[in-house]
Amino acid sequence: MNLQALKALIRRRVRYRITGAGMLFTFAVALTGAGAFLSANNLLFLIFSSMLALLLVSGFISRLVLSGLEVELLLPRHVAARSESPARIRIRNLKRLTPSFSIELTGMPLRDESLPPIFTGRLYLPMIPGAGSIETAIDVNFPRRGRSRENLFALSTRFPFGFLRRTAVVSLRRETIVYPAMEPAPSDWSLLDAVIGEIGEDRGGTGMDFYRLRPYESTDSARLVHWKSSAKVGGLQVREFARERRSGVEVYLDRRLDSGESRSGPMERFERSIERCAFLIWNLSENDIELRFRSQGFTIASPAEGDIHAVLRYLALAEPLLFGSNAETESPLGDSGPMIAFTAYPEEYAHAGWTAAPPV
After folding, report:
1. Owning domain of residue 315
2. What is the pTM of this model?
3. HSE of 68 in the Cβ direction (CA atoms, 13 Å)?
4. Which of 69, 190, 220, 359 measures 20 to 30 Å from 243, CA to CA?
C-alpha cells in the first residue's frame, strides 16, 4: 500500500477533522488548563471545564445533525461517459422533529479505484427541516462506460461552532448503464460526412411520386408551381413529392484485439473504437438513417428491431475478445449503402467487402 492510499484510508476512517478555528480554540483550552493547574484558581478551573464541555457538545450536536439523513440520486434514463449529465439529488431528513443545519454534500471516489467521483462540485444546504426533504439539480460526470453499481457521497457539517468537521460517507447502490463517450476527433466528423454524403441528402419534394398540393412558400422553386390549381383557389399552389427512401448503413464492431502487441495498447484502441462507433451510429440515427449494427454474436437493425439506445447499451457493455480468438471475419449482409467496420484488422475486413474506419 503506497503513501497516498494510506492517507486516503485514514481520511475515510477519521470521522472528525479539526478546523482552523478548532485549533485556535484547542490552544486556548490548553493555555487555560495549564493556568488553572499552575495557579489552582477556581475561576480558571470553571472556565477550563466550560471550554471542554463546549467541545463535547460541539461533537455531539454535529453527530446529531448528520444522523437520519438519506441521500437519493435521480439520474436521467440515458447517460454517456465523460460528459456532464443533468441529475437531481434528494436529501431526506428522517428525524421527525430535529432539523439538520449547515450540510455540505460532495462526491467521493470509489475505495478500490482511482477514478474521480461522478460529482466534483460542492453543494451547500443551510437547513433540512425535520421529516422534510430537499431536492436540487446537480451535474454528474461518469468517468467511463459500463455498469456503474456504486457511487459514494460525503455529507459533512461544521455546525454548531465550526470547531470540528464531521463527515459521513453515504454509498448509493444503484446500477446505471453508462454509454460510451462521444468525443469526436476530426477524422470522425470526416467519416460521418462521407457516410451521409454517400447516402445523399433527404429533402422533401425530391422524389418522383406525387404526394400533395400545398400553398407556395418563399423558399419553393417556381418550377414546382401548379398553375391550374393556383387559378382555381386564387393563390399559388406547389406540388410536393414523396420523399425518397434512404438506403441503410451497416456498421460492424470487431471485438478482437491485435494479438501482436501488449495488452495495454490494443485495449486503449478498443475503447476508442467503441467511442467512435457510438458517435457514428448516434449521428446516423439523428439524421433518420436506417442502421444495421453487427458485432460478434450480436445483430440488430434500428429502428426496425430496436431503437438506437439498444445499440448504445450493447456498446456500453461490450468486452474485447481475448488474444488468440478464432472468431472469423464476417461479410456484409447488405449489397447497397455504406458498410463500415471498426476493427484492428482492416485488411481482412476490406477483403471481405467492408470499408474499414480510418485510424485516429
Report:
1. 246-356
2. 0.74
3. 19
4. 190
